Amino acid sequence: MYRNGPPQSTNGFAVAALVVSLIGFVLCWIPLLGIPIGHILGVIGLILSIIGMVQASRIGYGSGMSVFGLILSIVTLVLKSIPLINLL
Q: What is the torsional sign of CA 51, 71, 57, 61?
């Protein structure tokens, strides 16, 4: 049937973590409105990244997307926690 075995499925949590974290990072730069957006999407991205990393350790792939989503989530939360940057 398949020449190289069946196609591998994707790590859905890793993809979701990367997308949510990237959207949160981009939208957190909106002045004043980015404060709640950055915090909400940062926390959601952080949770999805942790779940994606656990799932990646079980299935063997998708850890890169999870780690990048984790880094973006942490950067977003740190940027939105600094008061001076929130006003820009």
A: positive
d(CA 88, CA 59): 42
Say which residue, 32 or 42, is predicted with more confidence.
Answer: 42
Q: CA dihedral in degrees (21, 81, 71, 46; nearest 10)?
A: -60
Residue appearing with tokens 């991205």: 45
pLDDT band for 17, please (50, 70, 90 cuts).
very high
Q: Which residues of 50-63 are buried (b: 16+ CB within 10 A; e: fewer)?
A: bbbbebbeeeeebb
Burial class for 74, CB neighbours closer than 10 Å (0-12, 13-18, 19+): middle
